[in-house]
Hints:
By secondary structure, the chain is an alpha/beta fold. It folds into 3 domains: 7-72, Arc Repressor Mutant, subunit A, CATH 1.10.10; 93-160 and 279-295, D-Maltodextrin-Binding Protein, domain 2 (3-Layer(aba) Sandwich); 169-268, Periplasmic binding protein-like II (D-Maltodextrin-Binding Protein, domain 2, 3-Layer(aba) Sandwich). 40% of the residues lie in helices and 23% in strands. The protein has 9 helices and 12 strands. It has helices at 7-19, 22-29, 33-47, 63-90, 109-120, 133-141, 204-216, 230-238, 283-295; strands at 52-54, 59-61, 95-101, 124-130, 147-150, 159-167, 169-174, 194-198, 222-227, 244-247, 258-263, 270-277. It is elongated and about 80 Å long. The relative contact order is 0.15.
Amino acid sequence: MGYQLELRHFNYFLAVAEELHYRKAAEKLCISQPGLSRQIKQMEEILDVKLFVRSKKKVALTAAGEYLKGEMEFILNHLDVTKKQLKHISDGNFGEVRIGFLGSAMQEVIPDLLIGLKENFPGIKSSLEELSNTAQMNAIMRDKLDMGFVRMARVPDGVNIQPVYTDTFSVVLPELYPMLTREFKDVGQLAEENFILFAQDYSPLYYDTVMSICEDAGFTPKVSHKSVHAQTIFKLVENNLGIAIVPTSLQYGFQMKVKFIELRNIPQRAILSVVWKEDNRNPALRHCINLLLNRSKLGK
């Protein structure tokens, strides 16, 4: 046949795979719909596989198409990252480290890391994105992040995880809650209150740990609200819509009418870990990880 696969074929394929609509994909690519159809057909002939199932009503990926979509997203993203890293290195820098994080990491760990990078490796650029545990892990596996700060007990094969900060938990109460700090003995005193928690799918380990704190005190909490943002949780507490249990470090950086009571006499701790993929080839990542682990705080 004489045809060879070119990068444009994969870009065309991804456009159709994402849109699942030839006209929309063609418009996105600024080419004609018949031309796009010909390119996809040519690609299928070269690969000798069917990538799409077409009907008058819809376009769907085959099993082979689903596999190729995942692989090409990774490969094309890696090419894009490589181009950016080349530019950084050409400019005399080490490159860029893309960092995902939970909000609580911004209170203690990330500022220290960024300061350390600036002092020790000024040629390393960094970018930050606040994401849930699951979103960070997905991005790391797909090479869209280099490292993340998560609260997880387990990670997929091929991913390293190291604790970097151990925190206590604190109860969050409205500022005028009718209990003085010195009157607080244990969480069991709050058994009848409504609880406001971080959503379970945002941080399953946190959710399960808070449940265990309450269960150890002899009750199952009544969860009235869930959120993925600390500020939202604190605002709900401030307005007497419930109480919360959060990692103690989250109390910093918010000026709200709530009070915190640290739970020092319980075994549960909020452990923040750094995660990164073992085969990540970003030359700047190793400097970043080594610096972080050397500066990490494994206790208060």
